[in-house]
Amino acid sequence: MGGHLRRGRLRRRGRPDGSGLRLKARFARFTNVPELLRIFHVFGGVKTGEALRLPAPPLVPRPEDGRRAPETVVVPPSPELERFMAELAARAERIRGGLAQKGEDNLLSIATAGRLAALDLRLVGRSTEMPGKVEVAAERIAAIWAEHRERVYRGPDGAPHPVPGALQIVFCDLGTPKPGEWSVYEELRSQLVARGLPRESVRFIHEANDDREKAELFAACREGRVAELVGSTKRMGVGTNVQDRAVALHHLDCPWRPADLHQREGRILRQGNQNPEVRILRYVTEGSIDGFVWGTVERKASFIAQVMKGRLDVREIEDVGDVALSYQEVKAIATGNPLLIEQAEAEAELTRLERLERAHARAQVQLRWSIQASEREMAEAGRLLAQAEAALARRLDTRGEAFAMVVQGEPITRRSEAEARLRALLAGLLARGSADGRPLEVGGLGGFTVTASVDRGLDGRPAVVVRLEGVPESELRLSPWELAEASVVSRLEHRLAGLERLRDEATRRLERAWEELARAQDLVGKPFPQAERLAAARERVRAIGEELERMASGTADGAQRLSERGST
Question: How far apart are CA 490 and CA 485, in angstroms?
Fold first, then answer.
């Protein structure tokens, strides 16, 4: 097909066990983008929110850098979580080393356990005294609630609504409420009530079991009777219109698909939101599976964003879009060592520039070949143009009543008679064959001599070749069965009538070849335009590598000193 994936660079991904990063070869880019998008646009049309310029509220600038982007709330890991992640790492190593029996354990099970533990250790049967995501999120939610509890919003009629207060939305796909079981949802509500929120103002989407109950719950959200709505992506995605008062959205976990994350944030970044600015908070447990999940979403989102925003005049797409970059920032923070991500980015940039340098060298070879090909094309098109113009100067009109043709020296003014005489002559010539294949003069048409010869193809079967001498591209090759049905005279007249088209086409070919020759001559011999960036990228990779080596050496030295101190 037109577009295809190309196997790309080694990319660093978070390990499923949360213990760090490992190199993994993956497809890195789409090539042949114009062909790919043209095929896609045959049946699909994309209009992004950015293109439509819908009046959605902007995000509150982040205090650390002033960017209008989602906020990442880093939750420190507890010692219990670190021990649990070490257990997952051991399980992963057993699977990778082939020590685990088939059906006994798998990486999907490890990833699921890691996601649950990153959200709350109680979901995997562990406990800790340290505050986790639920407590940290409850603290943020309560602070935002107190800040906006007296804010007045407009009702459907445009008048101030009598019930003040903003709405906050919490998404959590794990730990959903189930009868008789501990759940993250109930724990979050308890934490919020303990911080002053009325219990009846914290609602779960799971409390609405049909469309009528959902409509009533959403109406309560829009009217200010709900301060906090908690739900999952599946139950609170498309069709959830509660944006009127939505001032903040909280991600307690990360879904696997970028589309799900887009759907979540579409609940607040939406037309009809009355807040001048809104907040999106993403909670990440440091050193947990969160790094792996956010990294996976980043990898998926990068390609999707590129295709959706891809231009038809570029050959490759690979730069990560703004949304995907924020995922990458989350991955770096959750991994606990942003320098590792910086190294991966630096190596990726170096690989990209080195590939561009190689492509530049290949392009220079291609340009030299293009110059030679353009010169040959100019010579061929010029020859064809001269022949067409010379033929036009000689051509006589044979249209309509002006028809006249000579067959074997006899002038004929009726097409049907000329056709019958010429076809009989050619059939006889084909039946007799030809000793040397030389063309024989059989008549004249439009001021040009008509010749015919017999030729045998690669299959050994004979064919008669008819041409107008002096008319470029006028040759007709007819097999015996084609000759029986063909209108030879009409075809020859069509060749004469097409001389203007042939002249114009030769002119266009000549102009295109001239333009290509000028372009190639202008570019050939030029140095690689990003040579300085390539040198800087190599230096950056070297510097980061040395810094990581120093960090690793310092860690090893520290461990050695602790070991020596313990032995004494």
Answer: 12
Q: Which residue has the higher pLDDT, 553 or 72?
A: 72
pLDDT score for 324: 43
| Closest by CA position to 555, among listed 336, 368, 390, 343 | 336
pTM (two decimals): 0.57
Q: State the amino acid at position 288 in one-letter form.
A: S
Concatenated DSSP letters of 384-449: HHHHHHHHHHH----SGGG--EEETTEEE--HHHHHHHHHHHHHHHHHH--SS---EEEEEETTEE
Which residue is associated with the tokens 């030879």? 488
> How far, in Å, CA of 293 to CA of 289, rounded?
6
| pLDDT beyond 90 at 3 | no
Q: How far apart are CA 68 and CA 235, in angstroms?
A: 28
Q: C-alpha angle with apex 42: 41 to 43, nearest 5 degrees?
A: 90
Q: How far is CA 523 from CA 151, 333, 366, 519, in A?
A: 63, 44, 11, 6
**Exposure of 392 by Cβ count < 10 A (0-12 exposed, 13-18 middle, 19+ buried)?**
middle
Share of the chain above pLDDT 70, in %: 79
Q: Which residues contact 473 (CB under 8 A, 6 or more apart)?
A: 384, 495, 502
How would residue 7 be classed by pLDDT, with cut points 50, 70 and 90?
A: very low
Residues 423/488, Cβ–Cβ less than 8 Å = yes
Mean pLDDT, to the nearest integer, of 52-70?
82
Q: Which of 276, 75, 248 is nearest to 145 (CA)?
A: 248
Q: Is residue 52 very low, low, confident or very high in pLDDT (cuts 50, 70, 90)?
A: low
DSSP symbol at 230: E
Predicted pLDDT at 407: 93
CA-CA distance, 27 to 9, in Å (whole number)? 8
**Is-contact 298 327, C-beta < 8 A?**
yes
Percent of the chain that is helix, strand, coil (3-state, to 5): 50, 15, 30
Beta strands in 384-534 (DSSP E): 405-407, 410-412, 440-445, 448-456, 462-468, 476-478
Q: Where are the beta strands (DSSP E) in 199-319?
A: 202-204, 228-231, 246-251, 279-285, 316-317
**Which distant-in-sequence residues (6+ apart) come within 8 Å of 437 by Cβ?**
453, 454, 455
Beta pairing class for 448-456 and 462-468 = antiparallel
Q: In this structure, are residues 488 and 332 in contact, taking their beta carbons and an 8 Å threshold?
A: no
Range of lowest pLDDT (104-108, 234-238, 358-362): 104-108
d(CA 264, CA 260): 6
- Domains of the chain as residue ranges with CATH: 63-76+133-285 (3.40.50.300), 403-480 (no CATH)
